Structures are given as structure tokens and as C-alpha cells.
Amino acid sequence: MKQYQEMIDVLQELINIGIGRAAGMLNEMLDTHVILQVPIIRILSRHDLEGEVGGISGNTLAAVQMGFKGSFSGNALLLFPPDSAKNLVSVLTGEDSVEDDMDAIRTGTLTEIGNIVINGVMGSISNAIEKQLSYSVPYYLEDSLLNMLHQNGEGACTDTIILARTHFIIEKHFIYGDIILFFEVGSFEALMECVELLIEKTR
Amino acid sequence: MATESKYPGNFAMLEYIPLGVFVLRKDFVLLFWNSLIEEWTGIKRDKIIGTKIFDHFPNLNSPKYINRLITVFSGGPPVIFSSQLHKHLILSPLPNNRFRIQHTTVTALQSAGEDFHALFTIQDVTDMTQRIHSYRKLHDHALLEIEERKRMSEKLQLTQFCVDKASIGIFRISEAGEIKFANDLACRSLGYTPEELYSITIFEIDPSFNVERFHDHRRTLRCDGFRTFETIHRRKDGSTFPVEITVNYLEYRDKWFTVSFAKDISERKMAEEQLRQKKWQLEELNRTLRQRVKTEVAKNREKDIILIQQNRQAALGETLEHIIHQWKQPLTTIGILIQYLESYYSDGLLTDDFVRETVDKTMDLLKHMTQTAEVFMDYYKPEKEKRVFQIKKSLEEAISFVEPAFRQQYITVELDADQELAGHGFPKEFVQALLIILNNARDAFKERHTEKPYLAIKAFAEGKRAVVTVTDNAGGIAERAIGKVFDLYFTTKLTTGGTGIGLHMAKSIIEKHMKGSLSVTNVDGGARFRIEICAPRHGSG
């Protein structure tokens, strides 16, 4: 049990590093100070997800999704709660107010933001465990969380979900919001083995 | 086939993708440059392949690009450069002096060895972006329009509400005389529901209109634009009421229509009728006024005559009283003389001298009595012209007239008059007025049984006027009566035969005949009458 917890701690560290890199990347690119807070990591079953994400699970959410394959496979899903999505687009595009209507320009912007965050985390994990993964092109989608996970769950080997929830603050514009990162790991055990190997190597 | 020979491996098929495509090696040297991007940039592939991308697009030589691309060269996840945040990754001019807007995806492409190349696929989103911007503008415009329509709708509703609740009847009438709209008051005042009104014509509520007249009315309206007229409206129950109509002939979007404002003028008509009646009454009054004035003047004259007669009688009574008082002593003396005659005759002492002496004395006394009567009567003869007279002398004459009567009541009179003080007016009438005041005082003393009755008479000059005050100690005049003592027929002496004429006459004499003033005030223990008359004009003597 202790060893499992240790592995989770390492995973949390890796995701935290990835989020940190993503924040640095965003600051560099957007010329504005984006703070991404230390994420809270949870390992969940699909069954537990409803209780964890509470009220937003049935709402239509904006998300960026990217699949990955290799030593371990799965989907990375970055969720923007509706207000957060609008706030982010507003500050990044300079629009005074963003309507609920997310057109292609706005979704393109959110896709890039999601891409930066997901890449930060995936890069951090894959670099650390020194395993090569192949990735699908990230894309934007709007649906309820349950539907998104249901679609991705078809044919998955496991129902383990890694949930990383972080909070972003763009100080200059007094804008803040939440970003929820899901990793549906089809071969969670394989990931954990990789993490275990990493721990062994560092000892 | 030529293309395939040009590009090794998988690159050849990238030529056919409808996207701008190029491939970078880890050292940022270009390995592939497809025809489409060649067309977009105007840079031929033989000029760019084998060179560093920064040589052609220095904007890419920036940490914000390099740091993200490095992960791709190590086989990391794809990188997206969105059109909103980057717009023109590879500058690609358009004929309108703008640049192609691009959405770029960079994916890792495994090379023959361990390394990865970066495959750039660029989507031209210029048209889509423009369409989205146009759509946004339309959307914003539509939102504004919706907002404006909402505002207009509210405004319209408010206007409709005002029209419905207006305190004047409002109608819209068609060319054919149909009622197309009527507000609440219009319906209420006519006793119809809106639906009932909309199913009838103007001819049914305005009996003065028929089709011909209505067309004439419309013709006039077209020329003048508006009309105001009075007519009658008929309610559903058949009753009628007068209305004032103001009609406006208006054009709205090439259509002509009329809006009529109907004001119920029942009250105004009633007021006008009342006014008309009053006016008639006034005219009638004016017409008969001369006659009425004549009648009233005649009545007043009659009253004056009665008043004069009453005054004469009163004056005569007072004169007689004074004459009797004057005559009492000589009559007594005459009586004694006659008794002496009888006694002397009985005693045989009657002599010629005694008889002659007695006759002479008697004759003197009779002569004095005659003169006394003449003097009194003289004072009641009318005077024709004003003249200057000595106030003190008039006062002394008046006092002498009442002196016997005053003596009988032990009334003390104190006279303090300026010897030189003169008045201008009618001296006999002045004495008459004084006598009225003195007799009034004597009556008051008698009625109130005043102990030590006392009259102070003062005469003095005050500015250009001569002033006489007569002050008694009879207790004064009651407050409720003091304002009325000069009123005709007002008397406090009803039980003792007061007529209410005396003081009224005195005031008339002083104020009307002599242009002076007569007033009365209560002073300590009595009343004070004050006469003011004009002093003689300078040089008049």
C-alpha cells in the first residue's frame, strides 16, 4: 500500500511538473502572467467519477481531447467549465464579452490552450519514464463529461481515471477558472509499472 | 512520378494534401515544401529546401515557437498553433495586401533513425475567419436589433397603454367610416365593447354624419390636415351627449388615416347654457336698469321727504320744548303781574300808573317771548349760502337755547372756546347739530340719573380745521351700539320716545352740508362727540 501511494505521489509530481511547464509556455506565448495552481490528483474508477466532479458531470462542457498509445494507452481530456472557457477566450482574444456560442475561431484558441496543458503533462510523464508514445491530433469537442467518457470507454481495458484538477488565474485581467484534466488510462497497470521502474532507477 | 522522385519516402504523398505542408528537420532545416505552400508564399521549393526556416521566416525564431517544437523533434505530442493566437505563422500575402490566416498543426514524423521530423500542416482559415467575423457582426447587429425591437415594443406598449387609458376618447376611422380603433374611454363613454364598436360605422355613433357629409368632411380634412368641431355622439342605449372632436388626417407608410379625439363637453355645454342665461338676465337687467334706478330714486326721495318731515317734527318738538322752557319765567311773571292787578283792584289800590306800568311790563315780557319764539324758529329756516361764523358765538347760542332745560336738570356746562376760532359753513345748521348733541346728552343724563351731570365743551383749531368736542359724564355708549349711533332710525331711547333721527341728521348736517366730520368715542365715564369743520379759507375773513 505504501508503495502504491509512493507511485501516486510520483505521478502527482510528474503532472505537477507538466502543469508548471504548460504555465511557463502559456506565459511565454500570451505575454501575460497565467498562474496554474498545483493540481490535485485523484485516481478514480468510472463509478466514482460522478461523486468527484459533482454538478458539472451532466452539463455541456468544452473539452480538448488527445489520444496516446504505446507502453500505456489512453485519452487525455482537458475540460473547461463553461465560465472558465469564456473567460479564457475573452482574455486571449481581447473580446469584451464572449457569447455562449463557441465558433471555430474560439474553439481553435481553446484547442491550442488545451494542447499546451496536455502536452506539458504528457511530455513530463513520457520523458520521465523514457517510453515513447504516439499521439493523435488533439481536437475540440462539446458534450457532457459522462458522454465523453462513455465514448472513450468503449473497448477500454480498464476503467481507471486519473483526475488532475487545477485552477488558473490571469492576474492582469482578474480572470480565473478551473481546468480539469482526465487521463483515461486503458493500461493503468502498465503506467504504474513504468512509474515503479522510475522509482527503482532513482533509488 | 516526378514528384515522387523528388521527395524521399512518405513526403511524396504530402504533395496531394489540400493543405500547406512542410517538413522540418531537428536542426530546423526544411526537408519538404509542397506546391500549395509554394503558391501561398511565392517561395519556390528549390530555393527553400535545404535551408533553415528562420532564414525565410525569422518570426519563427522565437522561444515561444522553438520551445514547443523541440518536444515534437523528440517524438512528443502534436503542437497546435491556432489562428486566433498566431494568425500568420508562415507569412503568406493575399492580393488585398493582407495575409492568409492559418491554423497550424505540427506532428512528429519519425525519420529513418531515432530522430523525429516536424510535419507542419497549415490550414487556410482566412475565408472561414472572415465569415465568422461577418457572422459575429451580424450576430451582434441582430442582438442590437432585438434589443432595439424590445425597447420599441416596450415603448409601443407604453404608448398603447397611454392611448388606452387617456382621459379623452380616441378613434381611428377608415375611409369608409368604419371604426378601426377605439380606446377604453371611447368604448366606455359610448357603452360598447371594442369588438362591438369595430363592427359598426361612424354613422351609427354620430347621427349628424351621413355618407355624403362624411365624404365632404374627409375632403376638407385632406386640405386642412386637421379639423375641430362639435357634434353629438349616440350611446348604445340611444342616449346622446355633446362632444368636441379634433380630427387629424395623417399619412403613415403611404397610407392615409384619421385619428379623432373626442371630448365629452356635456359639462361645458351646461356651463355655457348657464352663462347664456346669466348673460340674458344681465342684458334684461341692463335694459330695465334705468327704470329701476328711476324707481329707486323716487323711493329714496319719498323716504327723504318722510325723513325731513320726521326731522321737522322732531325739531319742532324740541323747539317747542325750548320755547316753553324760555317762556316759563315770563309767563310766571305775567301771572304774578295779573294777580297783583287783581289784588290791587280788590284792595282799591289800583292806579292808572300801576296799570300802565303793569301793562308795559307785561307787553315787554310778551315782546321778549315773541322774540324768543322767532329766534328759535329762525334757526330752523334753511340757509342758502355758506359763510364764516364765530364758533364760540354759535356755541353760546346753542347753550343759551338749552340753558333753561339744563338748569332744571342741574346740568353744568363748561365752555372753553377760542374767541377767534371761526368756521366756514351754515351757522344755523351748525347750531342745530350742536343742539341735537346737547339734547342727546341731556336725555342720557336723565335716563341714567347721572349725579352731578356735567358737560365740557371745547373748541380749538387743529391744522386747517376747527374742532369742537362735547364730553359728558353720562357713562358712555354701549360698545355694541357705538358703531350705529349715527344710523338712521337707530335709537337706544325707544322707551323714552327716541326716533333715531337726531344724530343721523346731525351727521348729515356736519358731513354732507358742511363737508366736516362728526364722530363719537367713549372716554373715561362718558361719551365724547367730536365735530370737525373747515376753518375759513385764508383771506376769507
How would you sum up this structure, described in words?
The complex is a heterodimer of chains A (203) and B (541). Chain A contains six helices and eight strands, in the order H-E-E-H-E-E-H-H-E-E-H-E-E-H. The radius of gyration of chain A is 17 Å and the shape is globular. In chain A, strands 1, 2, 3, 4, 5, 6, 7 and 8 form an eight-stranded antiparallel sheet that branches. Chain A starts with a helix and ends with a helix. Chain A is 49% helix and 29% strand. In chain A, strand 7 (160-170) and strand 8 (175-185) form a beta hairpin. The model of chain A is unreliable at 154-158 (pLDDT under 50). Chain A is of the alpha+beta class and 203 residues long. With 541 residues, chain B is of the alpha+beta class. Chain B is 50% helix and 22% strand. Chain B is built from 18 helices and 17 strands. Chain B has helices spanning 2-6, 11-14, 35-41, 45-48, 53-56, 63-73, 83-86, 126-165, 184-190, 194-198, 202-205, 211-224, 266-346, 352-378, 391-408, 427-448, 479-482, 502-513; strands at 20-24, 30-33, 79-81, 102-110, 116-124, 169-173, 179-182, 226-234, 240-252, 255-264, 387-390, 412-417, 422-425, 454-462, 465-472, 517-523, 526-534. A five-stranded antiparallel sheet of chain B has the order 2-1-5-4-3. Chain B has a five-stranded antiparallel sheet with strand order 7-6-10-9-8, with helices on both faces. A five-stranded mixed sheet of chain B has the order 12-14-15-17-16. In chain B, helix 13 (266-346) packs across helix 15 (391-408) and helix 15 runs parallel beside helix 16 (427-448). The relative contact order of chain B is 0.04. Residues 1-7 of chain B have low confidence and may be disordered. The chains are: A alpha+beta (203), B alpha+beta (541). Chains A and B meet through helix 1, helix 4 and strand 5 of A and helix 6, strand 3, helix 7, strand 4 and helix 8 of B.
